[in-house]
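ok trying this again, last paste got cut off
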Amino acid sequence: MAGDDRCIAVFDSGIGGLTVVRELQRRLPSEEIVYFGDTARVPYGIKSSETVTRFARENCEFLLRFDPKMIVVACNTATAAAMPAARTCFPFPCVPSIEAGAKAAVIQSEAALLRSSQPKEQLIQTPIAGP
């Protein structure tokens, strides 16, 4: 978003999402990045879908304190379980990084930033291009 100095927030169930942060910093050096690693509740993979969705929602709500322009979900389990809910709950893009790795998450983040001026309803229906 041109002129939007709010941060990009990233969360993962642990520290693996730091690879996404590293790639975001490399590709978007002027962006402020806020990272949350939910190491208190790791691993997510053994939890129910409902529990993971709740964790993801709580993580996003925590990250709202930083007034992000978007959230990158760097946790594959949270992406699989919670992306539909995350995309409809928040007034900004929530971008997954499942299966695609850090570089694709950055590409998706860049694309989402470009689309962020679209109305929320249109943004939710806009597919995020892969690598």
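PB: full thing came through this time. The domain at 8-125 is CATH 3.40.50.1860 (Rossmann fold).
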